[in-house]
Amino acid sequence: MLKKIFAFVFLITYASISSQNQRSVQFYKDKFFIYQKIGVDSAMIYVNKIFSSKKDIDQAFAYTSKRFLLTVIEKKYDEKNYLLQINSYLKKIPETKENYTDLSHIYNILGNTDWENQMFNEAIRNFIKADFFAQKNNDVKQHIKIKANIAGIKLELKQIDDALLETKEALKLLKANKNLYEKGKYEVLHNNLFSNLGHLYSDKFISDIDKNKKYADSAFQNFHQLLNSTKEKNFQALAYRRLGTLDNYKKNYSKATEYYLKSLEIYKSLQFKDEILNLTYNIGVNYYDSKEYLKAKQNFLELSGIMEKDTIVNIDYIFAQDYLSKIYLKENHKDSVEYYSNKFMDLYKENSEIEKKEIAELYKDLNSKNLDDEINKNSSILRNHLFLIIALVLLIIIIIIYLLYQIKKKNRTEQRLNVLLTQVKNNSLNAGNRANKNNFTISNEKEAEIINKLLELEEKRFYLKKEYSLTFVAKKLNTNTNYLSQTVNKHMKKSFSEYSNELKINYILKELSENKKLRSYTTQALADMVGYKSGISFAKTFKEKTGVTPFQYIEKLNAEALS
Q1: Is residue 337 within 8 Å of residue 329, measured between CB atoms?
Q2: Which of 8, 46, 221, 376 is in Cβ range 3.0-4.6 Å of 31 for a Cys bridge?
Q3: How far apart are the first and last CA of the chain?
Q4: Is 32 in contact with 43 (CB distance < 8 Å)?
Q5: How far apart are CA 103 and CA 89, in angstroms?
Q6: TPR repeat positions in this chain (predicted)?
Q7: Would you state the torsion angle of the CA atoms of residues 340, 341, 344, 349, taken in this order, to the nearest 10 degrees?
Q8: What is the pLDDT of residues 248-303, one digit of tens each?
Q9: On the CB side of 305, how many CA atoms lie within 13 Å of its CA?
Q10: Cα 113 from Cα 32, distance rounded (Å)
Q11: SS3 for 521?
Q12: Could you give the 3-state DSSP secondary structure of residue 209?
C-alpha cells in the first residue's frame, strides 16, 4: 500500500514539473515572436533556453527560430547543419492536433528565413506547408498572416495577379474575423494589407499602362480610402507618394507634384531619411517629365549633394547622375554632360551583376537605349579624350603655376597637421561636441535613457566593434533605428553616422599619437582596430574628418618624434 502511495505522489510531482517546464518553454517561444520589440539579442537568449526541452517539436522550433535570428542580423552560421537538425527533428514529429500550432509556426519561420535569403520558391513551399497546419488547426489569425506573406513573395516574383488574389483574400478574412483582434492591432494589419493592395494595383497598371487603366482607378480609390480611414502619418505619406507616382505615369504632372510634396512634408516631420531621398528623386523625375528642367536639376543636385556624404549608394542616386547629364545636354554644357555621364557609368560599374542587370533594364526603359552600347561608345570617346589630356598634361608640367599650386597645397596640409597635433596633445578634439552626461538636460525620459545608455556604450568603446551600426546600437538599447536616429540628431546635433565616425577617428588619432608601434601598421590594420570593414572606407572617413590622410598624419608624428 505504501509503495502505491509513493508511486502516486511521484507521478503527481512529475506531471506538475513537466507542466511547469512546458509553460516555461511556451513563454520563451512567445518572446521570440516579439523580437522586433525586445531586440534580437534578448530574443536569442530566450530561444537558447528552448533547447533545454527534450521534446522534438521544441528542438525543431529552437533551431528554426535561432536560424532566423542569425539570418536577420546577418551573422555567419553553419546553414547546412541547422537545416540538417531542423529536418531531422521534423521527421520525428507526428502530425497530430497537439503539434499543429508549433508546426505552422516552424514552417512560417522557415518561409520568412528563405524570404530574407531571397530564396522565393523555397519560401512559397514553406508558407504553403505552414498554412496547411494553420487551417487544420482552425487558426484564422495565422492563416491570414501566412496569406499576406505569400502575397509578398508573389510580388517579389512579379506574379502580380496571384499577389492581388492572395491580398484580397487576406483582407476579406481579416474583416470577417475583426472580433479576434484588439482594435489597434486590427487597424495596423488592415492598413498594411490595404496599402499593399493599392501598391499591387499600381504595379499592375504600370506593367502595361494602355491595357491596365482600370487598375489605376482601383489604386486611386484604394489610396484615397486609406487617407480617409487612417491617422497614421506613415500610411498617409505612403499613400500620397504612390498617388504621386500614379499621376506621373498618367502624365498629370502638376497633380503628381502636389501629392509628392505632401508626402515629403510628412516624411520630413517623421525624419525618415531614405523616404525623403526617394521623394527628392521622384519629384526631380516628375519635373523632368513635365519639362521643368531647372527645377528637376535642383532636385537631382540636392539628392547628389546629400548622397555624396553617405557611404551607401542607392539606385536613385545613380540615375540622378544620368538625368543631370541629360539636363546639361539640353543646356549645352558639354563639360557637365561628360562629368555626370562618366559618374553614372562609374557608379553602375561598382554594383554586383544582379544590380547591374536591374540598372540596365531601368536605363533601357528610361532612354530606349542599350546601356552596354552606351558604355562602349563612351569608352571610345574616353580614349580619344585621353590622348588629348596626355598632350595637355605634358604642357602643364612645364608651367611654374603647377609647382606653385603644389607648394601651396603642401603648406595647407602642413597647417592642418599642426592644428591636428595640437588638438590631440591638448585632448581638445571636437571638445564642444564631445558627448558627456553632464552636457545634456533632457526632459523626455525615454530620450534621456537612450542618451545615457549610448554614452555607456561609448565609455566601453563599443564603437570599435565592426558590427557597431545604427541597427546594432538600436538592438542594444532595446529601441528602434528611427527613434535612436532622431534622438542622436536632436541632442547631439549630428547624424548617427557622423557621431560613430567621430568616435572612431578621434580614438585612432589619440592611439597613433601615443603608441609608436601602431604607426607601422597598414591602413587596413588600423581600419580593423576601429571597426571599419574596408581600409579604403576608413581612409576616406579619416580624410573627411581631419583634412589629411592617415599616411600624412603618421609621417608628421614620426617627424615630430625625431625633431
Answers
A1: yes
A2: 46
A3: 98
A4: yes
A5: 11
A6: 237-270
A7: -140
A8: 999 999 999 999 999 999 999 989 888 998 999 999 999 999 999 999 999 989 98
A9: 7
A10: 14
A11: coil
A12: coil
